[in-house]
Amino acid sequence: MKIFNHVGLEPIEMKTTTIDGKRHYITPSGNKYKSVTTVISNNKKKVEIIKKWRQRVGEEVANKISSYSTNRGNKYHKLVENYFNNEHDPELYKDNPLIWIMFNSSLKIFDNINNIYFQEAPLYSDYLKIAGRVDCIAEYNGKLSIIDFKTSAEEKKEEYLYDYYVQEIAYACMLQELYGLKVEQLVTIVACETGDIQVSVVPPKKEYFIKLQEYLKEYEENNNRKFGG
Hints:
By secondary structure, the chain is of the alpha+beta class. It has helices at 36-41, 44-57, 59-84, 97-110, 158-179, 206-226; strands at 15-19, 22-26, 32-35, 113-125, 130-140, 143-152, 185-192, 197-202. Strand 1 and strand 2 (22-26) form a beta hairpin.
């Protein structure tokens, strides 16, 4: 088993709270910042897509699929987190062969990762007034990267990866603001139930930051309309 090196940076501790049904993070200075995941997932286009999908398959089926996908993702993330912490447990989820297939299919990709800065670490930005929990910040093929792990039934179309890049650029901004570290690339790793592993490596483009700002503006405008602001 590969032994991963960890860079000794101290993660920030933040608690979460729910405000108007939305997750917020409480920063060390006491500010309550909205979750970047919530902001991106509540954009009009994505909300409409999910609404139409739920109408097509029915609420009961949609809830089952959503629950299944969340459970699959949580288990995969736990195996990955343990592996990078050099605490691999072959007994964990041994009763779920699909998760193990997806995890073991990922190992060849994980060989490209080392010098881990953070895992499942809270970050925030006073400038953007958002916060979130990043999957992993590490070197991927020797370059400092925001690394996001996803699970899926099959490979995703490029258009469905775009919002992942927007979320990752938010983490890149938070990292630079808090620690002065500049990310060189955004890495999205999608483990599929087919055993395929989809890897997308993109530079932190300005267009992703512009899209993030658009989502933030849309989120605030929707909130103001909802609460009469």
